[in-house]
Amino acid sequence: MPGFEFFGEEERKEVNEVLETGILMRYGFDAARKGRWKAKELEQEINKTFGSKYAQLTSSGTAALTTAMSALGIGYGDEVIMPAFTFVASFEAVLSVGAVPVLVDIDRTLTLSPAAVRAAITPKTKCVMPVHMCGSMADLDALKAICAEHKLLLLEDACQSIGGTYKGKSLGTIGDAGTFSFDFVKTITCAEGGVVMTNSEAVYTMCDGFTDHGHDHLGVDRGADLHPFIGYNYRISELHAAVGLAQIKKLDTFLAIQKKTHATLKGILSTVPEVSFREIPDENGDSCSFVSWFLPTEELTKGVIAELKAQGILGGNFYWFDNNWHYIRKWHHLKKATALNALNDLQKEALLKLDTHDFAVSNAIMNCCISTSISLLWTDEQIKEKGEKIVAAIRKVIG
Ligand SMILES: *Cc1c(COP(=O)(O)O)cnc(C)c1O
């Protein structure tokens, strides 16, 4: 999964080009930067690589989600339907714009259940936010149909699925807007960074201003810019963008390695009849950063996790059901509405209700699920050995 495994000469060269001019900021200082515009260049490269019309870089994936929601006009009084299995950043962004995150069940795609989305729609629903978890996608045709029927926005959190596609289109470019994260453990990294992609010029223009204090970027210099609306500082730096520029050129290599390793590992795991796999709405579009698989019961799954741990080979095998970051079960701070500043009343009321909300459907999926992350550095022998050790642990536990 992580691009940091392939850090090298190319990243150093790009960063050094920025260090040579000393212009570490993405705007202004036109003469001194000697034609070096790494953030702009990376945005163009993103559009070219993923087929989006517009791309706005940000300081993180969380900032990208916040920016996208603001540009789409999501705020106080609005509800955003999102899955109970994601990374905390997804609900953080919803809360940060004053909206209410409505968490609903997932299905065996490990992403939003379209039926659960339908059941959660109220007059306040403004947006559906699928999260393409662990490299693969939500059922976008079903979600698009729901959004069209109810006149809702579709915002894709594709932070974990860079390079994944659905019916030939890049994840993150299919909804009204979509985001990637370039944090340190994502498929390509800038150290920290993110992007909003959209095909709407109006949404892009708002993202551009929002991430830079509302500047319209039309003045002769920064001091002459007007501020058509309030913005914040969610800018990426030239240093971070430079790293991303080197990384994006390696994406095809990363994806080819992931796909090959994924096929081998899945093949080895399939030799156990009790193992089943995550459902994938478009199998060809899986970015293959993880193999996600199920055992028949919670007890067996916990047994296998314990066995892998006992053998010292748990690393890279994620049991999200017990994880503090990715699944609602352990988001106690969210369910108790514990924030440093005052949340608005609508948010507070909705969050406190989560504590008693029944997530039995998601629990039954998550408590049997293990995701094995794929390293770009494994040799063929290591992949085989890892797969066979997992299979041996499963057989031992099943008995
Ligand atoms: C990583 C991630 C984010 C946020 O990214 P940061 O760059 O770390 O802020 C958002 N959503 C999901 C699903 C993620 O995995």
Can you tell me the CATH superfamily of the largest domain?
Answer: Type I PLP-dependent aspartate aminotransferase-like (Major domain)
Mean pLDDT: 97
Bound compounds: pyridoxal-5'-phosphate
CATH class of the largest domain: Alpha Beta
Strand order of the largest sheet: 1-9-8-5-4-2-3
Instruction: Sketch the topology as an H/E string, one letter per element.
Output: HHEHEHEHEHEEEEEHHHEEHEHHHEH
C-alpha-based Rg, rounded? 21 Å
Q: N-to-C terminal Cα separation, in Å?
A: 32 Å
Instruction: Please name the CATH architecture of the largest domain.
Output: 3-Layer(aba) Sandwich
What sort of overall outline do the alpha carbons produce when their principal axes are compared? Answer: globular
Largest sheet report: 7 strands, mixed
Helical element count? 14
Helix content: 25-40%
* Extended strand count: 13
- Derived from helix and strand composition plus strand pairing, the structural class reads alpha/beta
- Tell me the β content: 5-15%
Runs in which pLDDT lies below 50 for 5 or more consecutive residues are none
